[in-house]
Design a protein that fits this description.
This protein has 380 residues and is mainly α. Helix content is 78%, strand content 0%. The C terminus is likely disordered. The chain has two domains: 145 residues, no CATH class; 174 residues. Helix 8 runs antiparallel to helix 9 and helix 9 packs antiparallel against helix 10.
């Protein structure tokens, strides 16, 4: 009787503790949400750089503090400084474009009128076009207000990353303890998380930069005004499915043709289709062989979710969060839903790159699958 009362009390205390954790977690999340990009950025860099921490502390026998500091400097030089530079370049380039609403409306009207004269029917009206200058002003205002948040999150990344690296073993042990999966699935989770981060944090920006550079060179060659601005916009357009960079270079080519430079505009369209589009296909194929292949819908909807949450960094962290959500969902189905055919993965990769399950886990899994009820040596 006493034992039953103790068990009931212990169970009640367990649920009270869980409730307190949830309540405090909600409060902390509410007030720490502006710095969520910083925590995610630190976790992303930790996954990419933790192998170096192990090498420095175990192979080179360096102290944890010195090793974490060296890796922090590496992250600052090779990741955060270039990312900050690109961000401020985008903001400076776009903010440097002075928008005169009346002049913009007149130019757009002239362009539309010329196009309508050539096509022979009406496309737009001035009332429809009046919203474009306001949209441009809203974009500039949003970019300006995100600068402060971006700088603060960079500082958060540096502090959090240092302590994650310094307490690497304890941090990973705590994470593994709370995961409700078998040891085999924990290893798959660790591998999938690393592949997801590589595909999103490295693959997406690298592909955007490659296409943006080729687009910028083409726009300069064909005499497009504000070539850098359109190059940056082309880089961002790589995340869009089907249309992709076509959303930028196709209207540019048509506008050049309509303005009277038929040969130059046609050459720009050919360049966009063959070179910019071709670079997209080649770069994606190469990156998918080196990194994990994630379904494009995850990238697209991840960006749509991430930008309102994280601003500029949402291009990376949005797809990352959505990929992890789908991964956990697949792992739950694989682990706890009887008869489920779901694989505990999100990425698509060659089998040689997949995690190698330790031999003792394979033996354990085989033993679990044996049905001894019909074994001939077992008596009923």
């Amino acid at each position: 009787m006493i034992q039953q009362v103790k068990k009931t009390g212990s169970k009640a205390y367990k649920y009270i503790l869980i409730g307190l954790l949830i309540l405090l977690g909600i409060i902390i999340f509410k007030y720490a949400r502006p710095y969520l990009s910083g925590f995610l950025g630190a976790a992303t860099l930790y996954i990419l750089l933790k192998g170096q921490m192990t090498y420095l502390t175990e192979k080179r026998k360096l102290g944890r503090g010195l090793s974490a500091t060296l890796i922090l400097l590496e992250a600052l030089i090779f990741f955060l400084v270039p990312l900050t530079g690109i961000t401020f370049l985008v903001i400076d380039t776009i903010s440097g474009v002075h928008i005169d609403p009346e002049a913009l409306r007149v130019q757009i009207n002239d362009f539309i009128n010329t196009l309508e004269d050539r096509l022979g029917f009406e496309i737009f009206t001035p009332a429809n076009l009046s919203a474009l200058p306001r949209a441009g002003s809203n974009i500039l205002q949003a970019l300006g207000t995100s600068i402060y948040s971006f700088v603060i999150n960079i500082v958060v990344i540096l502090f959090v990353l240092y302590y994650m690296l310094y307490s690497k073993d304890r941090f990973e042990k705590a994470i593994k303890e709370i995961l409700p999966f078998k040891e085999e699935n924990k290893q798959i989770l660790a591998e999938e998380t690393k592949l997801i981060i590589q595909a999103n944090a490295i693959g997406i920006p690298l592909l955007a930069i490659i296409q943006g550079v080729f687009a910028y060179v083409g726009y300069l060659f064909f005499g497009i005004n504000n070539a850098l601005l359109y190059g940056v916009l082309t880089a961002f357009a790589t995340i869009l499915p089907i249309v992709g960079t076509t959303l930028i270079w196709l209207p540019l080519g048509i506008s050049v043709i309509v303005s009277g430079e038929v040969i130059n505009g046609t050459a720009l369209l050919i360049y966009g289709f063959l070179v910019i589009g071709g670079v997209d296909n080649v770069a994606r194929f190469v990156l998918q062989k080196k990194l994990a292949d994630i379904h494009p819908l995850i990238t697209v909807f991840g960006v749509l979710i991430g930008i309102p949450m994280f601003g500029f960094l949402g291009v990376i962290f949005g797809p990352l969060l959505l990929s992890l959500f789908i991964l956990f969902f697949n792992m739950y189905r694989h682990e706890y839903v009887p008869g489920s055919t779901a694989e505990p993965r999100v990425t698509t990769m060659p089998k040689k790159q997949q995690v190698k399950i330790p031999r003792y886990l394979k033996k354990k899994r085989k033993i679990e699958k044996i049905d001894i009820s019909n074994h001939p040596d077992i008596e009923n």
